């Protein structure tokens, strides 16, 4: 009886995941602009859900990692953020101003070889990476098309309905609560890999699609379980 119930609930959960994947504007935008990427991200999203929620098999993990790397390399090929290693006129002006003030106020603390090399060669790329990283963590980017912080030169488009936001938050809080090491490592890897993809990519931060869809799905599943449990208690009483 338990195995039958497990199969039934397993099918329901998979169906919920499928609904989340197809009932959002982002996936339709991806598949319209690049059908192969749409198919790839769809299969990857299914793999993410099945591995982290249902079956932690080594074959599924290998498939998940392989598809993630393929998606990453395609996205980098199409939209590597070249501005990371290319200073604009504004960056150069900022460096010169900073050099003038730091050299005057800090003296040898700043004018040593290590500090000068860091500020000249590495500070701006790291700042840009940090900017990309935190921009991808903004819920407004996914649920409100970045409103009210729309970015100049970036095509902002609706990715998920705001209705999905509460379920996404439930999924995130649950994932933090159970603290799965594999999910944590995967999330951090996606975050770091996405930081070198340009924010102007016309498909958006596509590596986040499977992860956010997974969180939304978990939110729906947990909410459904809670409501069913309440109804059973009320019925039994």
Low-pLDDT segments, ≥5 res:
1-8
What's the SSE pattern?
HHHHHHHHHHH
Mean pLDDT: 87
Q: Total helix count?
A: 11
Give the % helix: over 70%
Question: What is the total tally of β strands?
Answer: 0
Strand content: under 5%
Output the structural class.
Answer: mainly alpha
Biggest sheet descriptor = none
Shape: elongated
- Straight-line N-to-C gap: 24 Å
- Which radius of gyration do the C-alpha atoms yield? 22 Å
Quick structural summary:
Helix content is 76%, strand content 0%.
Key features of this structure:
237 residues, mainly alpha, 11 helices, 76% helix
Structural features, described:
This protein is mostly helical and 237 residues long. The chain starts with a helix and ends with a helix. Helix 1 packs antiparallel against helix 3 and helix 2 (25-33) crosses helix 3 (35-54). The chain is built from eleven helices and no strands. The chain has a domain at 1-79 and 179-205 and 220-237. Mean pLDDT is 87; it is low at 1-8. The protein has helices at 2-22, 25-33, 35-54, 58-79, 89-106, 108-111, 113-135, 139-143, 165-178, 181-194, 208-236. Helix content is 76%, strand content 0%.
Describe the SSE topology:
Layout: H1 2-22, H2 25-33, H3 35-54, H4 58-79, H5 89-106, H6 108-111, H7 113-135, H8 139-143, H9 165-178, H10 181-194, H11 208-236
